[in-house]
Amino acid sequence: MDIPVRTKSTGLNLTPLIDIVFLLLVFFLLTTQFIEEDGIGVKLPSSNSVTTRDRDEIAIAITKKGDLFVKGQRLPLTGLTAKLEEVLGADTTVVVRGDREVALQTLVSVMEKAKEAGAARLVVATLQEGN
Q1: Is the pLDDT of residue 127 over 80?
Q2: Taking the model in full, what pTM does it have?
């Protein structure tokens, strides 16, 4: 009489693990807000007040040396108004990301040029205190 020999499978079923990993991936992709930073090395000043960022905004970065960058492109102060007129929309917010050691006059001049270009709303970017 032949008795059938049963071999046990010792492999793990990875299907549930893969399902959970994909669900976590989809969850984080859907809940993460992707906000584009300009990548210019600017040390922002700190502040106690915090507000959220708009989706429709243009960032002007002012480095410690006083160099201006709009959308990663270096510009002189004289060419800022023309560049902003080119990229500003009807309800676009202009965010000035000035280094904490930049001269106040430079910051004021940039804000004046943004107003000349038709910026409806100007915001100075800061870091929350303690960060």
Answers
A1: no
A2: 0.59
Is the distance from CB of 22 to CB of 29 less than 8 angstroms? no
In this predicted structure, what is the pLDDT of residue 91?
78
Domains located in the chain, CATH noted: 46-128 (3.30.420.270)
The residue behind tokens 């040029």 is 113
Q: Smallest Cα–Cα separation from 59: which of 84, 81, 79?
A: 84
| pLDDT above 80: residue 11 | no
Count of all residues that appear for the chain in the document: 131
Judge contact between 88 and 59, C-beta under 8 A.
no
C-alpha 63/C-alpha 97 separation (Å) is: 9
Give bridge partners of residue 7 from the DSSP assignment: none
* Block residue for tokens 């969850």: 27
